[in-house]
Protein: MATE family efflux transporter
Organism: Allosphingosinicella humi
Amino acid sequence: MLTNVATALFGLADLWVIGQLGIPAAQAGVELGAKFMMGLLVVFNFLKTGTIALTAQAAGRGDEAAQAAALARASGVALLIALMPLAIPLGLDFLNARGAFAEEARTYVSIRYWGGPLWLVNAVLVGWLVGRKKVRAVLVVEVAANIGHIVLDLLFVLGFGWGVAGVATATLLSEGLKLAVLVGVVAREAPAAMALRAAFRRATWDKASLGALFRINRDLFLRTLLLTGAILLMARDGAREGPLVLAANGILYQLFILSALILDGFEASAQVLCGEAVGGKDRRRFDRLIRALLLWGLGFGALVTGAYILFGAPFAASFSTDPAVTATTLAYLPWAVWLPLIGVTSYVYDGIYVGATWTRALLVTMVAAFTTYALVLWAAGSLGNHGLWLAFTLFFIARAAGQALLLPRLRRATFEA
């Protein structure tokens, strides 16, 4: 949870610092540019989650060679993806970028784009460390990268007056800092040296091993693509309402993502612990973990919602010095306040499904939830931005419901086999 809070500071710092300029178009431009980069990169988050699952299951079997091979394979895939040309054209047009904030968004993306390969390799290294339960080391890395990021944000935006370009440059440089520290941490792990040797072994790249990696990653890629699509549709529909609503939605999204990343601590725990239980064929431990994770997740979800009820309004208001942006944000704030409690069950189930490598079922439930989201989004168009947040909320409820229905059958199939 602490590691994820540190991760959340990247987006929070960017939006808060640019908000101090009191220019809605600049704040809307950062919001739209960040969503574009998220759409471009987060679809490859399977590199992290797939690596966590395979590394944790290998750890459950006590197999260090398999952990090393998992690192080598995932790093190889990340580097191949990084070599692919990442195209920007049409993306911002799809997100309804218009007028002054469109130019700001293009400025942000044109700089931040070059950090894409760094982000991909970082995802693999973090996933491998989490799969080995080296979460404290990841926390140190995230804190170091975020301190550097916040200092650079303040220096470039408020000190040098670079505006949106300063935010993007700070993010790019902090990704490079994060990669350098991660490489140093990973190099100290025993299987890391084995991974370098494994990268040159033919067995590491055999058809069966690569097939397992790509099968898991294919399902996770498509699932993440749908999740990212839901968020991009939200940004696209918000942009139709103009820069005020788009800027307000950007602030509310940061509140949502902060709570989601805090509660994703339970998802990451589920990935590692349930992966170990499946790898060790320990059905009793697996069942205990499910109960504990759901109960603790709901408890913390209620705590985060309570904190937002008490402090959410002044916190949200601090993100902009423009009174119109602040008033618009507060009008829609209740949606972000209740999402932590509503969404936490789906986060926990995501972790259970990834840890158990039930990735095809995870994809099926995401397809059903996305269909629900799209239908509600279309039906609630007359409600404006409230309809948008209603559809987004029901998206999480549909995900959790589908996962809960499928879990008993998947559990029986896994442990009886």
